[in-house]
User: Fold these one by one.
Assistant:
Number 1:
Amino acid sequence: MATATPIITQVKGLSGSEAVTFLRGGLPPRLLHRICEYIDANLEQNIKLDHLAYLARLSKHHFSRAFKRSLGVAPHAYLIGRRIDRACTLLSMTDMPLVEIALTVGFSDQSHFACRFRQQVGMAPSAYRWTHR
């Protein structure tokens, strides 16, 4: 079975200024950048896979596969990761209450936020706040 030839390109806003590998079968760089910008701009919203696929003008299944092929993670995992990244910034730079941060970054409640935060970061949000001040 032949493997896809990688195409290296730069996409601003994805993990700083690192180059991201795009494989055949993934989303075009411009479209991927637009989708990622949409996610970042709407983190507090309930972003559905249906809507992301609609923005890309692809079926849900095709969009999900192409997104994962492009970034190495499923759309939902990417969304959760971006929410956690934004929460880390808010935790270290503001004195906002945890419940407010949870709602600001798009989690339904503080409990869900704390659970996902611990899974991704390895410590509770409050512990992260105190170690990153």
Number 2:
Amino acid sequence: MAEEGAVWQLSGRGAGRSYADVLLRYSVALLWPGDAGPWSPDRDDEEFEGGFVRRFAAELQSSGACRISAVGLVASGYSYLDVFDDVVGLDLQHARRVRCCELPTDYDFGQPVFGPTPTRFSRVQCAEVRDYVWRFLNSPPTYWQEAPLPALPAEEPAMEDIPSHLQDCIAAAADLYPLFRDSERFGPSPSEDEIVGHLVLPFLRSLGWLPERIGVKWRYIDVALFASLPRSPETCFFVIEAKRLGAGVESALDQAKGYVHSLGEARDIVVTDGVRYRLYAAQNEYAPIAYANLVRLKRSAVELFNRLARP
């Protein structure tokens, strides 16, 4: 029998994009922001956008953890796992292993028991949720509560040799990224227009795009790249949608698809926050086909560089 104790709620969504499938696949609870580095008792909550990480690392005990889509039991202490440094555009390195039992269908409590906007991580006070969790834990089947944990994914190798024509813009991104995220030194986060000017345009110029073939706010598109002149829907080669830094680039896809539809031409889409770039193929129902994070470059980033280079 499971002994009743604290129940915690962990959201599997951030910046408009779900990563719940990753949590369930690897039996791991993940929390952002991870780019600030590992948590320790001497670090201030403000370094981690509030007290979420402190509660996750120091206050969460090995008892029931509940979500609407799954119930789980915490199976490890806090750890910092670099393999989850970039999950759907989010830095989720703060981790704990959790034995999860995914529900056949999402359980609907019929009311906002986690509040109108659930936080990324919090202790559950709602009696109805707590009762549901403990009845679930004490009901068969219970084999999953002691099942072996799945292996964690292998970390992708870092890019060792950065192409020479990209070295300056990547170095600039590495310098600006921590500054832009530091509200005490920099102030409010830069706007989307600033991200385009300071990060996106220098990156595109490094890839060989000439100024006259880069349209900014062309037909409401943040950045449009043209294969030839004159600039028109027929010559538009890429549509690029920019978001604020750390906003989760995948959340911008639907908006970009609307711009493509208005052109009347099928065009590949790039979504970016100036540091993370994901390319979606129009001919493959906008499936993601290439990705690069300029401040955490992996070998696979070469594919995005090659595809996004000026033809």
Number 3:
Amino acid sequence: MRKLILTEWISIDGFTSGPNNDMSFVGESFNDEMGVYEDAIVSQCDTLLLGRRTYESFAGSWPYVPDKPDASEGEKDYARKLNAMRKIVFSKTLASADWNNSTLRRDIDAQEIDRLKDEDGKDMLIYGSANLVQQLTNQGLIDEYQLLVHPVLLGAGTSLFTGVSDKRKLRLVSARPFTSGVVLMTYAL
């Protein structure tokens, strides 16, 4: 059975972005070591679940990275992997999802997610998409939470778990510090 894995950059105080969707804290701590992690997690998965805002951000940039002369070979390879993945986009307002291999869904259907988990293939991945994460968490559909905790307090912004309605007991799988001060905390249900 495939797992549904969340990978998320967060501040110590639990924000995925600061005020006005500022994510500059990620770039302040990102290094080659974290790039290796990002490549490994994308290589482990073949399906990407995204909310509207994350989809629009990704679709507006990653399809073009392989053709950028100033992009590193690592960035190009990572972009090719993202571009090849099946993408399921959850949005009530998006008119279409035109990025390669994208399917638009208006609502989360827990039975569909369970069917996807039962399919043959690699794991499924959620990037960003705090609202989607909250909904999937409320339905008990995320199997693993990989939280990249950055050494910064943002004080305000988009909270990853604000909309979670019930207590969820998670089990620590691993904790891995990066030289940048970021700690990868992996939890499972």
Number 4:
Amino acid sequence: MSKKPSRSHKHWNNGEVEILRELYPDSIMIEVMAALPSRTSRAITAKAIRLGIKATKEKISEGASRGAQGRHISEETKRKMSENNAYYWKGKHHSEETRRKISEAQKGNKPWNTRRQLSEEHKQKISDAHKGKPNPEHSKRLKELYAQGKIKPPLKGKHHSEETKKKISLKVKAYGFFKRKNREAKFNKKRLRGLLKRPTNPEKQMMSLLDKNFPEEWKYVGNGQVLIDNLNPDFINNNGKKLIIEVFGDYWHDPNRNWVISEQERQARFNKYGFKMLVIKESELDDEEKIINRVSCFESV
């Protein structure tokens, strides 16, 4: 049994060919589609090429703009189109011959915006989009002017006061540890793993202890689930009590570190919202009995 031909491969009758010859060169694709409703745009284009009929660029662009009028592509569709294009063109390059042909075809073509007058609203949008972005041409021009002596660098000849020097020195000393350690790739990897890992090992140890001795009473929220005055507590009470348990790592909560928020400040910020805080230090976690007693007393407050 022979397969039924699709409408795109259906035989073209004389009437369809005459409509195609009459409309295609002088009309847009939408009008041709309306005259030949049983044909797809691909079939119409292919037949026109076989017949030697060529439409002008103006007509094609006009039809494309009218056909897409009022349509908006969703972000999901844009993403899929981008992925498909990237997959299709991966590893593909134009030959030298193709590049030469493209170059010759583009010669003499004027840019799309030649003599185009932009509205004030359009100019303002362009200006807003570029605000805050570095302009490499601006920096090049400044360097040329500095070299020519036409302008002076804004800080040339200026000196910091002794007070300012002292503040800068304190800042440098505070971050001197990381300044030295940042040269070590091993340290950087370890630090990043520690920052991204939630829960941390001490938090896991505390979580296991609470689940074992105080089932369903405490919830771990140290991965950013809860923020109180921009502070993220480690554990919060599940029974409606405004109680918080914080697990302080020996390194990250060392009071001698400049970046550390003190225990008193954390408690004060939690107190503003009626929360009480219990601090468990990493070095104390090995004494399980002591931790259980402290949490029991904390809950009974």
